[in-house]
Amino acid sequence: MTEERALNFIEEIVENDLQTGKNNGRVHTRFPPEPNGYLHIGHAKSICLNFGLAQRYNGKTNLRFDDTNPVTEDTEYVESIKEDVRWLGFEWANELYASDYFDVLYAFALNLVKQGLAYVDDSTPEEIAAQKGTPTEPGTPNQYRSRSIEENVQLFEEMKAGKYPDGAKVLRAKVDLASPNMHLRDPLMYRIRHAHHHRTGDKWCIYPMYDFAHGQSDAIEEITHSICTLEFIPHRPLYEWFIDKLEIFPSRQYEFARLNLTYTVMSKRKLLQLVNEGHVEDWDDPRMPTISGLRRRGYTPASIREFCERIGVAKRENLIDVGLLEFCIREDLNKTAWRRMVVLDPIKLIITNYPEGQTETLHGENNPEVEGGEGGRDIPFSNELYIEREDFMEVPPKKFFRLGVGLMVRLKHAYIVKCESFVKDADGNVTEVHCTYIPESKSGNDTSGINVKGTIHWVSVPGAKTAEVRLYDRLFKSENPAAEEGDFKDDLNPNSLQIINAFVEPDLAEALPGKGYQFIRKGYFTLDKLSTDEKLVFNRTVTLKDGWVKK
RNA sequence: UGUCCGAUAGUAUAAAGGUAGUACGACGGUUUUUGGUACCGUUUGUCUUGGUUCGAAUCCAGGUCGGACAACCA
Description:
Layout: H1 9-19, E1 28-31, H2 41-56, E2 60-65, H3 75-87, E3 94-97, H4 102-114, E4 118-121, H5 125-131, H6 149-161, E5 170-173, E6 188-192, E7 206-208, H7 214-220, E8 225-229, H8 236-246, E9 252-256, H9 268-276, H10 291-297, H11 301-311, H12 322-336, E10 338-340, E11 342-343, E12 346-351, E13 360-365, E14 376-381, E15 384-388, E16 408-411, E17 416-424, E18 430-438, E19 455-456, E20 458-460, E21 465-472, E22 497-504, E23 516-519, E24 523-527, E25 536-543
Parallel strand pairs: 1-2, 2-3, 8-9, 10-23, 12-18, 16-19, 21-25
Antiparallel strand pairs: 4-5, 5-6, 6-7, 11-22, 12-15, 13-14, 15-20, 16-17, 17-18, 21-22, 23-24, 24-25
Helix pairs in contact: 2-11, 7-8, 11-12
The chain binds one RNA strand through helix 5, strand 6, helix 12 and strand 19.
């Protein structure tokens, strides 16, 4: 059951269509990526919108690859896109390709040529651009615009037959060279490209442009609501012009504002640059805003869907605080992640009154958020432990609820200890903290009557395992790197990745791939794909919210 | 000096002429064997100038600001 929420403007349109009986009450959307890159969180917004609409109104959603440009596209991307959509939790009604429609599209084009609404133009790209005029000046027709229908039919057939080299000719719609909308100034429909297509092979040497493929594909599939981003608004009159002249199914286009996130970039071009120039490991680098990156980082599908739900859908430009995404993953993982103890930056804690060589096995629940704790695990304990360096201070300030000489804390799942002294090395760094423990304060049956403010995590030196832990920070230094002057890469955060070695409790050797773990007091982590039995590697998904501010 | 889209707390997003609300954030508190979680509280907003109206975030007009559009990309 979804929570009560105000409708967004697209849902209002759909409900209105449903009420007026449009499309016989049918709702059919599509998610139409071009297979030339990996999906990112911005696509997730579109996926949640399109699939969510169909779910809500009992409709269907097609997955359609907009593969009309053979030189940039590849099956590698097709596969990753399918994987990502499925991972997000959606199932498409049909897997379709614009390239499946090349024959129909060609027939549509011939139809327009025969109506005198399209013509073959021999001009160079530069000439065409010049003849289009400017936003304030109308375009000017050239001699090709008045070619006869017969000549156009023959030329277009010859284009298809491969008689001309790349760039020699294009097919253009004859709309209005004086339109204030630049997209109506005789837009290109087909260009010549003697290139191998990942699906149609070498069958074609002419390929339709976006404007003569997308809307037509929508019509062929009888898409009722074709949802795209704001930059396509000027294309809509052309979208409708083709539907009108071709007398095909009247799909309608609606536009919403794309997602922007603070401290990252969202354009495929920029993400590709980060990969190609080695600023990140790959498309699935955990710092990337790609779906595969977020997955590797430890984000769950539910958290991303929740995020998309919370950001809403509107037409105004936006820049969402990445803190909201972090809130969503914390909210999810808090309920599902198993708690474990890991020391990231160790110093030793010696319990002077606990017999050297003695060990005992303590118990810790897996998840305190769930009734019964979801079971638990054994934790070895001894007189020699690792604790976090930041949990001890030589000169503790007021309200420092951790260790300092004379202060007491509880060791999570274990005993209360009192700090008696500490040891420094030659450089003045603290290396050991010496404590005494209170035997009757054992977790679970504490009869000591002592209350302490702080509880800290620890790992027993005997039994401790090591792991590589990768700590991530924002990829860019400024909130909106795309808006910065100059090269956006100058804004890259040089400290976005920190790799450390940590001591982890032994149970973590059994960590499951894909599962979220909370390293108590430190954050949420998950096994990286590079992790092996010999060498554990964890990614930090997100830190815990930290209410402690040093004065 | 064109056409189109937009403007509500710090960030997002509601209110369809009738109480400006919600979430995240921030701040404060309660609980707590995670300075987490949970719970409670506080905080800040309708771009501007006019008009219509008993009443305007909402309708109208002008202005301001932001964005998109002149790829053989999508």
